[in-house]
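Researcher: Please generate the 3D structure of the following complex. Treat every line as part of one assembly.
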Amino acid sequence: MDRNRREFIRAGGVLGLMVAAGLLTAEQAQAQQAAWNKAAFDTKSVDDTVKALGGASAAQSGDIAITAPDIAENGAVVPVGVTSKIPNTQAIYILVEKNPNTLAAGFGIPAGTEANVATRIKMGQTSNVYAVVKADNKFYTASKEVKVTLGGCGG
Amino acid sequence: MPDPMRIRATESADGVDVRVLMSHEMEGGQRRDSAGNLVPAHFIQTVVVTHAGKPVLNAEWGPAVSKNPYLQFKFKGAKKGDKLTVTWVDNKGETRTDEATIN
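Model: Done. Output below.
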């Protein structure tokens, strides 16, 4: 902590330059870490996650497409992609209903970025995978069942 | 210092396609070691991708993201030769930043 502060002070003179160059300081990294939404990642059901993200409820939407395998042989690595055709999509969240904590990942989508993200997640057992999309401060959702042959949490 | 990320950013007709592969154990905090003790969680919490000083993607991850995380997305407004910066921070405060050139 102290060391970080000293480095930060020493770097003060060139700070503007570093920020301009897109380099992050330790202090900025801490700010980035503090932005993590702990409450949302602690939730244990789809409804609770939506509430922790600031929505009352999420409406079913046919404009959200989830790309995931029907059967995942290895629950430790399940490729999941989400595409939202809802205008003004601000954020995309990937939820796994039967994981110990429901929320797996969230993606903030600034203007100019397509509402289309893909990553790989862990699944403890066969479960519905939910995509929750925030657009114009409203929440929409879609789901897809993924059968897991071999669990990826614990084991 | 954690291992470097592998970043591939390619320009296509409808934007820049970005693929990032990070090197991180993404320990979920649910697993027990051979002595029966819980292995403490150690995972990437935030990932920020910036282009020309502006964020093009902000990701927040829980421990349910797979080991050696993969991330793919597309954005508009950049051209060949532009630089792209990816920074992640994990729950122990470790961080890594890598830069890639769009081609």
